User: What shape does this take?
Amino acid sequence: MATTKRKTHRGAAKRFKKTATGKFKRSHAMKRHILTKKNSSRLRGLKKAALVSKADTKNVRSMLPYA
Assistant: This one.
């Protein structure tokens, strides 16, 4: 008997991408509005992708079973 299919968490699928090494990429927060008071070097840093922390990787992996 086949096991049931697992559902992908659609919110997580839009926010995380899996890298070739099996880690998960994410974007930074605080980049949507109230940008005038944030200096340009801070905004440049927020542009770059970051990796999901080791503590949260297990949760992300369970939300994205086929990633």
In short: The radius of gyration is 16 Å.
